[in-house]
Automatic annotation (TrEMBL):
Pfam family, one: GGDEF_2
Residues covered by the GAF domain: 128-283
Protein name: Helix-turn-helix domain-containing protein
Family per record: Belongs to the CdaR family.
Length: 675
């Protein structure tokens, strides 16, 4: 495929993309000067719509795909697409867009590495601070204006260190921003990056700025037309030292992707600042800069050449002079066995509760009583893995530097591995939904083929739910741990389809319901994770899988209603409850309330009548057993029964009335919570 759409189109064009939001981002532009983004409006999957986008000189062609993905091709208004061309574009745009984004990502990665290399090569703190805003603008070219604020410890306020070329630096340097004042002071005080996506959000966040600061700001640049702002703290040893703020004055606004990029780049700048402080105090170690560059280039080359994790690991080992273990926290499959990986994750959770920093290295004794030093590999606020080595010596400055350089590269590799897994789940989920909704035998067979299901193999729909009552930072790890455990325990019996929030949707290969229950019971009795499972009926044909899936969810719902964990429930064992599954909780509660209302005694009198009726039914209408259970005389019970019959206008000797009473008591006990 060509590097641009000119292999299909012979006119200027723009290509915009929207993923799971109403905001469009331009991903390609070929000689078309119009900047305003397209207007979003609802479309069904596979629909194509033509609009003028409010522009007279161009037309917008909207191509809608699954998962709320939309591409908009902007062409000159005079250009007409043929039906064949429209069909070709509809099929080719996703692949072309993916290629463009991959190329953009590679260019961005190279640009980030170049910028990091540029700022980390500076040993003078003043030079580094002056360079920061320039490199930030290079990494995020969508920004129109950028300003770097630095905290002055003596004056206890933030000052402008440098602004981009469009801004009057000298005027802005008169500003003194207190912690908590405006967007800059807020980000400094809270230590968290923020994005302001509308003008109203920007002005609201700036409302508490002093009049003097507002006057200087207005003189330095016309900020009244600002559309969007992103702002991120730069920290050194967990303490905010600077604040980077970027402004956008065009129609398109910053979104979370630019925010994440700024945060990640700010983290790299934080490392550079920390190193700069060290270098200023230790001029004799200037030779480390050259070594750092060499290491950086070598690791980046390995990453860009897709050499893989093992090559990067071996390169790091060669540079630092000793071997280490590498653990993938999501796949548990590199150097250590899974028990070692689980052990480290649990210890990391303990250490995190003390330090509140995912990336902080820590010491831990292995199950064999060896002391190890552990460096977490962190990306996007998630622990992806660990570098582990025996703590026999103190790391030198060079060795620590190598790990600082290598861990972000390893994080990129681990992220790529995890992305591949997530993509596989998405494909599997889409195929399974097609199977559930198939209207023809051909559609059913096609979906089954994508899922690699065998016609001769009976299956049971099986849904696991995991209790995610731990620190949110570690939820993904524990979900992956349980998923990995499932695969090991059930091996060839289990066909994992996808995960959804705290649930894992699977198909279990088993000949009988007894075998299926035995396999699930084995899992729940051996795992350390709190979980439960609903099992659907046996499906011997593809068309029966949909029914089994619905039954599995109903069985799981029963366990949820009763707050039961570490148990499984087969739909066939629900018994009489199957009659009520199609009714809402409101309907059942209404029936129960209507039945018991005459004896509920809102004034407090005869409040024991409901309890009496329930225990009477539980003891099969035995007067002696009921009186004994209630600790009352039989004659007293006879009086209560008479009051109940009178109030409810029933006879407990009439079989139909007895059935209604039994049903109401059963539903009150098992279906209506706090009725």
């Amino acid at each position: 495929m060509s590097d641009n759409l000119t292999f299909i189109l012979d006119v200027p064009y723009q290509l915009w993309q929207k993923n799971n939001s109403n905001r469009f981002k331009q991903i390609d532009n070929h000689e078309l000067p119009i900047f305003e983004p397209p207007t979003h409006f609802p479309l069904l999957t596979n629909d194509i719509a033509y609009t003028d986008g409010g522009l007279k000189t161009s037309q917008d062609i909207h191509f809608q795909y699954a998962y709320d993905v939309r591409y908009v091709l902007r062409l000159p208004s005079s250009y007409k697409l043929s039906d064949d061309m429209e069909a070709l574009l509809s099929s080719e745009l996703p692949f072309y867009a993916q290629r463009i984004m991959e190329q953009t990502q590679k260019r961005l990665l190279l640009k980030i590495y170049d910028c990091i290399n540029a700022i980390t090569a500076l040993t003078n703190l003043d030079e580094l601070l002056s360079k920061m805003i320039d490199t930030t603008m290079e990494v995020i070219p969508e920004a129109d204006v950028g300003v770097l604020w630095v905290y002055d410890e003596q004056e206890k306020c933030l000052k402008v260190r440098k602004a981009s070329a469009l801004v009057d630096n000298e005027t802005m340097k008169h500003m003194r921003m207190k912690p908590g004042e405006g967007m800059i002071g807020s980000v400094f005080q809270e230590g968290e990056a923020k994005v302001y996506q509308t003008s109203s959000e920007v002005f609201q966040a700036s409302a508490n700025m002093s009049n003097m600061n507002l006057r200087y700001l207005g003189r330095a640049y016309s900020f009244k037309d600002v559309k969007s702002v992103i702002c991120a703290p730069v920290k050194v040893q967990k303490k905010t030292k600077c604040v980077l703020i970027l402004y956008q004055f065009k129609q398109a606004t910053f979104d979370k992707s630019e925010l994440e990029l700024l945060k990640n780049f700010a983290d790299q700048i934080s490392i550079a600042l920390h190193n700069s402080n060290i270098f200023e105090a230790m001029q004799k170690q200037n030779h480390l800069l050259q070594k750092r560059t060499e290491i950086h280039e070598r690791l980046v080359k390995l990453s860009l050449e897709n050499k893989g994790i093992y090559h990067i690991k071996h390169a790091l080992e060669k540079i630092i002079g000793f071997s280490f273990s590498l653990i993938d926290a999501f796949h548990f499959s590199i150097d250590e066995d899974e028990n070692e990986a689980f052990y480290l994750i649990d210890k990391h959770l303990e250490k995190w509760n003390d330090s509140k920093s995912l990336s902080t290295s820590f010491y831990v004794r292995s199950p064999k009583n060896y002391l190890h030093q552990v460096y977490p590999i962190v990306g996007s606020s998630t622990c992806l893995g660990y570098v582990v080595f025996e703590a026999k010596m103190t790391l030198s400055s060079t060795q620590r530097m190598v790990l600082e350089q290598g861990i972000p590269i390893l994080a990129l590799e681990f992220t790529h591995r995890q992305t591949e897994t997530n993509n596989q789940f998405k494909v599997s989920e889409e195929a399974f939904q097609h199977l559930l909704l198939a209207e023809t035998n051909a559609e059913l067979l096609e979906a089954a083929k994508k899922l690699k299901l065998e016609k001769t193999q009976p299956v049971f729909a099986l849904i696991f739910e995991v209790a995610l009552d731990m620190n949110p930072t570690f939820i993904n790890l524990y979900m992956q741990r349980f998923l990995h455990f499932l695969k090991n325990q059930l091996e060839k019996h289990l066909h994992v389809l996808y995960t959804q929030d705290s649930s894992i949707i699977t198909l279990l290969k088993a000949s009988t319901a007894q075998e299926a229950e035995m396999l699930v019971s084995k899992v729940l009795s051996n795992t350390s994770v709190r979980a439960r499972a609903g099992i659907g009926g046996r499906a011997v044909q593809f068309v029966q899988i949909s029914k089994s899936y619905k039954e599995a969810y109903k069985a799981l719902n029963q366990l949820q209603e009763k707050r039961i964990w570490n148990k499984h429930l087969n739909f066939k064992d629900i018994g009489i409850n199957q009659l009520f599954l199609s009714h809402s909780e409101e309907e059942i509660r209404s029936f129960v309330d209507d039945f018991f209302e005459p004896i509920m005694a809102p004034n407090g009198n005869d409040s024991h009548l409901v309890e009496t009726l329930q225990i009477y039914m539980q003891h099969n209408q035995s007067m002696q057993e009921t009186a004994k259970a209630l600790h009352i005389h039989v004659n007293t019970l006879y009086q209560r029964i008479h009051k109940i019959e009178s109030a409810l206008q029933i006879s407990l000797k009439d079989s139909e009335d007895v059935l209604n009473a039994q049903l109401a008591c059963y539903l009150k006990e098992h279906w209506v919570i706090d009725a």
